[in-house]
Amino acid sequence: MNRYKIVISGPFAAGKTTFINTVTEIDPVNTEAKTTHTNEAGIKDSTTVAMDFGRITLDGENVLHIFGTPGQFRFNYMWSILGKDALGIIVVVDSGERDKFDEARDMINFFRVKTDAPLVVALNQFENKDGLTEDEARKLLGLPNKIPIISCDARDKGSVKHVLLELLRLILARGDTY
Ligand SMILES: Nc1nc2c(ncn2[C@@H]2O[C@H](COP(=O)(O)OP(=O)(O)OP(=O)(O)O)[C@@H](O)[C@H]2O)c(=O)[nH]1
Ligand SMILES: [Mg+2]
Fold it and tell me: Which residue among 8, 18, 93 has the greatest number of ligand 1 atoms within 8 angstroms of its CB, and so is best to mutate?
């Protein structure tokens, strides 16, 4: 059995937990705690404090183990712990939160320094916001052309799978499992 460890990261409230919960075939492991800081509590009631975990069996031979990180910088020790031995990284970015793009860029760079595993940016399109296009987001993130950026809806299974398959394609091109 080939197991592929994939890490889902990105800024606060980008949709990381939603992304994992949408595709996992097992009951996900989530570590949500009540948001305490007023600026965060105004956005949502709970936040990931340690990790999310989900699993997808691709076929008889291949299974994805998907680990989600907390988004907030004060939990960044978990980014390193969860990022260890990851074969691929997905950074989820809320396409409508322009203020969070600097943070997203720092997270992308964090993982690019830590690991040479392939990285894909999932540009989460919240339908009620005026989201950036892939090209606009690429520019704002200063993303090199070799890093794919793919619009997605974290609540839509087909859309999340599409992002995962793009990452898997890059991983398979390198031939790694863990
Ligand atoms: N409308 C809309 N809502 C979304 C989408 N993706 C996530 N959400 C909602 O946005 C909120 C934030 O999603 P989470 O999945 O908790 O975000 P997160 O990145 O895990 O957040 P932290 O772990 O706190 O950093 C939740 O209430 C989701 O239901 C989307 O594509 N569209
Ligand atoms: Mg979360």
Answer: 18
Domain positions in the chain are: 2-174
Which one of the ligands is nearest to 71 CA? 1
Residues by chain with Cβ below 5 Å of ion ligand 2: 16-17, 48
CATH superfamily entry for domain 2-174: P-loop containing nucleotide triphosphate hydrolases (3.40.50.300)
- Residue 1 — pLDDT band, cuts 50, 70, 90? confident
The whole-number pLDDT of residue 129 equals 76
Which residues 6+ apart lie within 8 Å of 50 measured at CB?
31, 70, 75, 78
Query: Could you read off the pLDDT of 22-51 as tens digits, one per residue?
Result: 999 999 999 999 999 888 899 999 999 999
Q: Whose CA is nearest to atom 9 of ligand 1?
A: 15
- What does the pLDDT look like over 77-102, one tens digit per residue? 999 999 999 999 999 999 999 999 99
**Residue 124's closest CA among 8, 14, 21?**
14
> What residues have CB less than 8 Å from 150, skipping those under 6 apart?
120, 121, 122, 123, 134, 162, 163, 166
Q: Which atom of ligand 1 is nearest to the CA of 153?
A: 31
Q: Which two tokens stand for residue 128?
A: 């009620």
Residue 116 in tokens: 């040479």
